[in-house]
Amino acid sequence: xxxxxxxxxxxxMFAFIVSYAVLKKFLFRPLGAILEQREEEELAAAxxxxxxxxxxxxxxxxxxxxxxxxxxxxxxxxxxLRGQGLARFEQLLDxxxxxxxxxxxxxxxxxxxxxxxFRIAGTDRRIGLFELGALEATHTRAPEHxxxxxxxHICELEVDPQTGAATIVRYTVVDDFGRAMNxxxxxxxxxxxxxxGIGQALLEHAVYDPESGQLLSGSFMDYAxxxxxxxxxxxxxxxxxxxTTNPLGVKGAGEAGAVGAPAAVVNALANALGVRHLDMPxxxxxxxxxxxxxxxx
Length: 297
Description:
There is one protein chain. With 297 residues, this protein is of the alpha+beta class. Among the domains are: 77-131, no CATH class; 150-296, Aldehyde Oxidoreductase, domain 4 (2-Layer Sandwich). Helices cover 50% and strands 12% of the residues. It is built from 4 helices and 6 strands; from the N terminus they run αβββββαβαα. The termini are far apart. 14% of the residues are buried.
């Protein structure tokens, strides 16, 4: 005897088949597409990474090649400079031998130099190098290329709106001079030049009588110079990149502080007052007038 199938079981099986078809159409396929898209994105990212890495390796290789070339050129210049120095030394020795021969009353060919003394060969008669007096040798070197030092000055100041007096509360300097031969001396030079530039920006003014042309600020009683109380402690830093156009790898530093400070101070004051132009020196009276004009407008 054959039993009729259970209707409930048939409904369950039918619902399962329909659900599977729906999931396959609306869930499994989109999920597979998402995974496939993600895989493609990862492959694309990997290709970009590999390409960037190759570009970086090429850039490093090119940079190392340029650096090696610059080192070879600098070494060549250094050797040339050393040869020129030896030539000047030989020139001085020739002068000294001639002087020594006159003092010792002998021919130049009989004079030999050793341990800072000129001696007559085969005798004990001698005279010291510094006993001969002044010696002179001249050499002029014209560099084929310039050096380009660079730096950054940052000035932070406050302005009293009642008096126009500007007070520098912080000053930071970072310079690139190629190579520091004497770091302490170099920092002192930068600070001294910065003080000079601050004085030029805020205080120093050569005043002349408009009718006679007589200088009215001809002494330090009348000419305002920066004092310790006008200045903060300086934050000095260096980021040296050796120069490739001279044997020592150095760059100029003489006027760095005096060049950067006026622009930094004047721009800081212009920013504080909300104006675009100010003429040095920015005395309290001039600052007060500029502030008053800016407030009225």
